[in-house]
Design brief:
Blueprint (H helix, E strand, L loop, with lengths): L7 H4 L2 H24 L42 H26 L7 H31 L25 H8 L4 E3 L2 E3 L2 H34 L6 H6 L2 H12 L9 H21 L19
Antiparallel strand pairs: 1-2
Helix pairs in contact: 2-9, 3-4, 3-8, 4-6, 6-9
Keywords: Membrane, Transmembrane, Transmembrane helix
């Protein structure tokens, strides 16, 4: 018999308290790691950031993201256009598959963590395509010889970047929308660059978890019960990891381990939204282990 999740008794018990402690402890740890390591300035340094040091260049800590890493391939011999082509193809294939899934099964698919992650991977390749378009423009501008002095004389002092003459409004928006600065001759990414890096590492954890759980745990059970495995089900649990691994092999993005914190926040956000939905509407749980009536729920 289904339990009414809107009843106060469902939530006011030791099981929910223990589950909440697990979830919010992980989210608090994630927030601490982000506060400590994210961005170009390190919080654990002994320097003084006040007074005459106001114009000092940012320290290259583990959390720094350079703009060129978002669009440059890992090897100089590879033209950025190849990475752009890969990302555009990946975006359209993933978006098409997601659209078919929505049309077939409705918006209720977003009750599942898998579809959350699949949407995030799709958005990652969409944003990556835009950054690669900007990068290809910069690459062509540099090769043409017109952009030999894009940085300017104050680069080593962390000055803001001014778009060179003839640069498109699109390129200027990518650079100047969020305080692009220079460190060690390289341009530090602004908001979109950091968002792209965060999406990359969030996807790395979420995609691996969802696909490994599906193929190693759920698939043997489904195959044993002769469950009908359609194209959409297989595609949403395989093609995303193929494209993500391919992009990771081609791109120049780094993988500092502290950013696993974003994966913890992403998963914690999913659990919290599930709790909010079920506290207001008594509907089925997408995963049985999320049900607090399930014996192993606290684990």
């Amino acid at each position: 018999m289904a339990v009414d999740t809107t009843e106060p008794e469902y939530w006011l018990n030791w099981k929910f308290l223990l589950c909440a402690l697990w979830v919010y402890s992980c989210m608090a740890l994630a927030c601490f790691l982000i506060w400590k390591y994210e961005g170009p300035r390190s919080r654990d340094s002994n320097g003084d950031d006040g007074g005459d040091r106001e114009e000092a260049p940012p320290r290259a800590g583990p959390g720094v993201v350079y703009l060129e890493d978002c669009w440059k391939p890992c090897l100089e011999e590879i033209h950025p256009g190849w990475l752009l082509a890969f990302r555009v193809v990946a975006f359209f294939i993933l978006a098409s598959l997601l659209l078919i899934d929505i049309v077939t099964d409705g918006w209720s698919i977003f009750l599942y963590y898998t579809q959350w992650t699949f949407l995030l991977v799709t958005l990652y390749f969409g944003l990556g395509s835009l950054l690669s378009i900007y990068g290809c423009y910069q690459y062509a501008y540099k090769i043409s010889g017109d952009g030999s002095d894009l940085i300017g004389s104050g680069a080593d002092h962390g000055t803001y970047i001014i778009a060179p003459t003839g640069e498109s409004a699109y390129g200027h928006a990518i650079k100047s929308s969020c305080y692009s600065r220079i460190h060690g001759g390289q341009e530090i990414a602004g908001f979109w660059g950091y968002l792209f890096q965060i999406m990359f590492q969030t996807n790395a954890g979420a995609v691996m978890i969802t696909d490994l759980v599906f193929w190693l745990i759920l698939y043997p059970f489904l195959a044993h019960n002769q469950y009908d495995m359609n194209f959409i089900l297989i595609g949403t649990h395989s093609i995303n990891v193929v494209f993500l691994v391919g992009d990771a092999a081609l791109n120049k993005l780094h993988f500092p381990w502290f950013r696993i914190a974003y994966f913890l926040l992403w998963t914690g956000l999913f659990v919290n939204i599930q709790w909010i939905i079920h506290a207001n509407v008594s509907i089925w749980w997408p995963y049985p282990f999320l049900d607090l009536a399930f014996p192993g729920a606290p684990v």
